[in-house]
Amino acid sequence: MPNSILDPLDYEIVRELQEDGRRAFREVARNLSVPEATVRTRVKRLQDQGILQILAFTNPSKLGQAKLALFFVSVAPQDHDRVVDTLGRWSEVSYLSTTLGSADVCVQVLCRDDESLWALQQKVRSLPGVEEVRVMQEVKVHKIRFTIPTVQSTEE
Amino acid sequence: MPNSILDPLDYEIVRELQEDGRRAFREVARNLSVPEATVRTRVKRLQDQGILQILAFTNPSKLGQAKLALFFVSVAPQDHDRVVDTLGRWSEVSYLSTTLGSADVCVQVLCRDDESLWALQQKVRSLPGVEEVRVMQEVKVHKIRFTIPTVQSTEE
Amino acid sequence: MPNSILDPLDYEIVRELQEDGRRAFREVARNLSVPEATVRTRVKRLQDQGILQILAFTNPSKLGQAKLALFFVSVAPQDHDRVVDTLGRWSEVSYLSTTLGSADVCVQVLCRDDESLWALQQKVRSLPGVEEVRVMQEVKVHKIRFTIPTVQSTEE
Amino acid sequence: MPNSILDPLDYEIVRELQEDGRRAFREVARNLSVPEATVRTRVKRLQDQGILQILAFTNPSKLGQAKLALFFVSVAPQDHDRVVDTLGRWSEVSYLSTTLGSADVCVQVLCRDDESLWALQQKVRSLPGVEEVRVMQEVKVHKIRFTIPTVQSTEE
Amino acid sequence: MPNSILDPLDYEIVRELQEDGRRAFREVARNLSVPEATVRTRVKRLQDQGILQILAFTNPSKLGQAKLALFFVSVAPQDHDRVVDTLGRWSEVSYLSTTLGSADVCVQVLCRDDESLWALQQKVRSLPGVEEVRVMQEVKVHKIRFTIPTVQSTEE
Amino acid sequence: MPNSILDPLDYEIVRELQEDGRRAFREVARNLSVPEATVRTRVKRLQDQGILQILAFTNPSKLGQAKLALFFVSVAPQDHDRVVDTLGRWSEVSYLSTTLGSADVCVQVLCRDDESLWALQQKVRSLPGVEEVRVMQEVKVHKIRFTIPTVQSTEE
Amino acid sequence: MPNSILDPLDYEIVRELQEDGRRAFREVARNLSVPEATVRTRVKRLQDQGILQILAFTNPSKLGQAKLALFFVSVAPQDHDRVVDTLGRWSEVSYLSTTLGSADVCVQVLCRDDESLWALQQKVRSLPGVEEVRVMQEVKVHKIRFTIPTVQSTEE
Amino acid sequence: MPNSILDPLDYEIVRELQEDGRRAFREVARNLSVPEATVRTRVKRLQDQGILQILAFTNPSKLGQAKLALFFVSVAPQDHDRVVDTLGRWSEVSYLSTTLGSADVCVQVLCRDDESLWALQQKVRSLPGVEEVRVMQEVKVHKIRFTIPTVQSTEE
Q: Fewest CB atoms within 10 Å of the CB: A42, D109, E36, G146?
C-alpha cells in the first residue's frame, strides 16, 4: 500500500484511470471485481478531495502555433500566496507549483506566439513581490502520464 | 480559429473536455448541438493523432509520502533522442519535454521519498550522453489545467 | 513561399539585394525578368513598411581604433519601452533588439576606445529601470549578411 | 579624423552611405563637392578591402514566421578558426563575430520556427571543438544602423 | 512521537543528552523516573545502531590557528561511494554528507592554515570521479547543537 | 603543540574525548597518567571558555522522517549579528556559522518534512537584512567527528 | 616605439628600472650611454606625471601571518568615484583598479588574519553604492614584475 | 611586532621603502638612527630571501595603447605547478598568484591591444591542464602600494 490516504482499492481505481482517463466505470469495476457504484463513489470522493483530476491535454508540439514555456519565478516570501493565487487564475497558465531550490514558483504557460510569450513574461515580472523570472521554452512534449509511486519501484 | 490543425468544432470539443475530462460525449454533443457520434469520432481521431490525451492526475501534495521534482538535464546532441526514449519508459517519469535554454530535457518525476529521488537522479546522470542534472523539488501543486491559446488572449 | 507578407517576387528582389545592397534596379529587373519600375516600386514599399533596410556597414576589425561590444541589459518591465527609445537615439548604438532569456535588451555599441566603452556602460547603467548591464567585447567581425529563411533550409 | 585607415574624404563618403545605403554616387559627390568618379573609386576600394559593406537587412519582427536568435558559443582554442569558417558558410547565419568574455563566438541566426532553431542549436553543438552553446531569442529588432565613432563623441 | 524508530523513552533520553552530552546516566534516569540500567542499555543500543553519537567538538574560532572550511564536491555517480569512503577516512574531515542540489557531497574540513587548506582542496580534486570542488571558509562557529524535530514544531 | 591556547595536556585530553565523548574521566586520567581531578578541572575550564563541547548527535539518515538541510544565507553587513543571534535561538537550527565566500551565514536545519523545510526557508528569508537563501538538502550523513589539526598532518 | 607618450630613451630607462628598481642612475646612464643627469631628470618627470612608480613589495607568502585577497566590488555608477576615493585611502588596500566585466572595481587587500579579512569585507559592503563584494584569497604570489608591452611581442 | 620573520628594525626599513622605493639608504639610516651599512645589509638579505622586491611600475592608464587585464584560470591540480611555471616566464605577465575560490591562478597581463589580449587568452587556454580562463579588463589603475599589516590595524 503506497500511502495511508489511498486504500488499496482507491489505488487500483486510480491506476485504471491513469491508463485511460475516460475508461468506463463499468470496465474499471469489472477489472477490479467490485460493483460499479463503488468505483463511481470512490472516484467522486477522490475528485472532491482534490486528490484526483481527469485532465484533457492537447500536445502543443502537434498544434501549429501554440508555444509552451516554463517560467521559474522568484517571489518575496510575504507575496508568495498572493502571486500563486493570481497566476492560478490566468488562462495561459497550464501548470503551477511551489518549488524549493533556485526558484519559488514554477509556472507552465501556453501562448500563441513569441510576442505573447514575451508580453506574458513582462506581466509576471510586474506582479508585486516578483523578483526574477527565468524562461525555458519547451520545443516538444514527449510524455505526460502520472503514476503513483509504488512501494517496490519498477526502476530496479 | 487558433490554428489550422483543429477546425472550430474540434476546438469546441477540446474545450468541453478541458473543463471536465470525463464529461459524457452525450453532454458535449448537446452543448455543441452536434450528434454524439460526431463527438465520439472526432475525439477518437484527435487521440489517435496524439493531439489529445485524457489524463488522470493525482496531486502529490495531497498524498502523504509522494515527492514530486523536476530534473533539468543537459544532453550531448547526438544522445538526445536515445535519452528521451529511455526516460520516457521509466514509470517514475510523469512528464518529459525537450527544452531550449539552460537545459535540453525537462523531466518531472514522482518518487516515494528523498532517497529514491537521489537514486533516480544518480541513475539519470549515469545515462550515456547526460552531462548535467539539476534538481528542483516541487513542494505543492496549485493548478494543472491545459487550455488551447485563443486568438484573443484573455490576459489583456 | 517563406511567409505571407512577402509575395514570391518581393522575396526574389530581396534575395538579389542581399547578394549586393547596391545592385542596380535595372540588373535586378533583368535577372528576374520583370520591368525595372516594378522593382523600384516594390523596394520603395518594403522600405516604407520597415521590412527592408539597405545598410552601410564598416567593419571595426579593419579600422584601427574602433571598439565593438555587446551590452546585455536587464530592464524593469515598466521601463522597457522608454529605455529602448532612449538607447535607439544614441549614435554609438549600432544595433538594438528586445530579447527573451538572460537579458531583456541586446545593444551593440561602437566606441573609440576602452575608456569611452566604460563610460558608455556606466551611462546605460544610470538609465532609470536598468538593473544590470553585462558587457561582451567583439574582437573581430567575420560575417554580416542577412538572408530570409526559406521553406527548404539549406542546412540539411 | 577618427582613424588612420580612412582619410577625411573616405570618412565623409561612408557617412553619406550610412544615412542611405543606396544613395546615388552622383548625389554623394554633389553633397561632398567631389567628382562622382572619385566617390565610385573610393567606395570600390573600401569594399575590396573589406572595410565597407552595403547590406540588405529584412526585419524579422515585420515578417510573420522568421525567428531571430543569438548563439553564444564556447570553442576550444585550437578549433576556433575552423568553427568560425564553418559557421560563416551557413545560410542561416546572419552575423558572426569573435568575442572576448563569457563566450568565444557570437552567432546571429535567422530560422523559420522554433523547431529549426532547436535543430540548428543541436547542429552547432555537434561541431568538433564546440563546448557550449547558449541561446538568446530576439523578439523585436528596434534599430540597425552602424556609425563610425567620431573623435568628439555625441554622448556627452 | 516524532518517528517510529525511537520510542517515547528513547526520545526523552536523547533530549537529555542533547542538553549535555556527558550528563550522568543516574541524573538522566532520575529526571525521567526510570532505572539507571534502562538508560544505560538504551543509550548503548542507540549508539550501536549508529543513531546516536556523543561527540567532542572543539570550536575553531576559539583556537588560534585552526581553519574550518566547507568543500562542496561534484562527483560522477559511479564514483560517489568510493569518494565518500575515501574522504571519511581522512583525519582533516570532521563532517561528511551526501547532498542533493548544486553539489553531491558536502565535506567540512579542519586545517592548520591556508596552505594546508589549499593542499587539501587540490587533494580532493585529484580523487578519481571528482569533477569540481567549491570552497567556503567558515570564520566563526556560533552554534552546534542537534535536536530531534518534534511533531509540534517550536517555530510557530 | 598545535596551538598556543591548548597546552599539550589539554590537547591530549581533548583527543581522548574526540574518540569517545563519554569516556570516563578516570579512564582518560589513567591513559594520560595524570590525576583524575586534573582531567575534570581542565575539561570544565575548556567548556567554560567555549572551546570544548560534548554533543549528542542523532543521525537523521537513521531516523525515518527527519530532514536535514543546509541554508546558505546572504545578509546585509549591518544585520549580520542580529540575524545570527535570531537563528541561533531556533530549535530547528543544529549548526550555525559565519562564512566567507558566496554566502555570509551557513545554517544547518533539521525539520520533520518538506513542507516544514519550505516554511522554515520562507521564515529565514523574511528576517530583516536577509537578501538570499539557497538550500541544499542532505540525503545521508556519513561522518561526524571533529579532530584538532596536528602540526604534522596525517594527510601526507 | 611602443607608444607615443614615452620616447625611446624614456622607454630604455624604464626597462632598466624594471630589471632592478634601485639600479643606480649612474649605472643606467652608463648602460644607455647618456649623461646621468638626463636619466635623473627623465625619471623625475615620469614619476611626477604618475607614469612611473618605484615600489617596495613584500611577499605575503614569505611572511607568516599576512593574508592577501582580492575583492571584486560591484558599485552603482553614480557612486563609483567616491568608492574608489575611499578605498584608495585605506592602508589595507595595496592595489585598486576600475574594471570592465563581472565587477566594477578590483581591490587587493593585505590583512593580518581571517577575521580582519572578514571585517574588511563587511566594511567594503557597508560603503554607500556598493552592491556586491566577491572575495578570492591569494595563497601564494609567484611573480610581480611589470613590463611595458613592446611592438614585437616576445610571445611568438 | 607584526610577524616573527621580520624583526622591528627590518620592519621599519621596509616601511621607509614602501613610502619611496628609491629612498637613499643614507636617508633611511638617518631616519631610523642606525648605521647606513646596517640598512644596506638588511635590505640585501630581505631581497635575497625573496621577502622584499623593489619594483618599477608603469601605469597603463597613463600610457596610450597598453591594455591591462586579469585572467582567472582554472587548472587541473596535477598541472598547477607547471602552468604557474610557464606563465611566470611570459613577458606579458606582470603578476601571478595561486588563489583559493572560483579560480586557481590569477594572472595580470599587459598587452598592446585587444587582438593581442585575445591571442594571449587563447594561448593560456591552450596550456595542458587549463580548464577555463575568465577575463576581466582593467580600465584604470588608481593605487598600487603595498603595506605590511600592523598589529593594530588603522581601519578601526
A: E36
